[in-house]
Amino acid sequence: MAKLERFLELEFTILEFYSDYVISEPREGVVLAGKQVADLIEACSGHYEEKPFVYVSYRINDYNVNPTIYINLEEVKNLAGIAVVSKKPSSLSMAKFEKEFSKVPYRIFTDIEKALEWKDSILLEKNKKADL
Description:
Oligomer: single chain
Distance between the termini: 30 Å
Strand order of the largest sheet: 1-2-3-5-7-8
Helix content: 25-40%
Number of domains: 1
Strand content: 25-35%
Largest sheet: 6 strands, mixed
């Protein structure tokens, strides 16, 4: 597994930063909306600067997401993709609904290792496009 570069606790989530991905584990009962997304973008931009990365939402706890948060994420130029990981049917169902709002590549997984394999492929694709 990759080496943890930074650990950050925010009021609504715990973030683990690795070289080209961040794992977010939102806290029980929170609602992710505009302010929280702004805080996430600031934390990720500060860590990755211009380097492409994938955001992994590790949904262990129950929480809510305002799906409109995905609409403007394509403006985060180095966000290569979003992976949602959960084994809970309710979280997977909600993730499917949220996916409809995302213009950034978005995949749903029940296994974090599969999500990280996808992360590798999506970053490889993004790097190929950057080389053109």
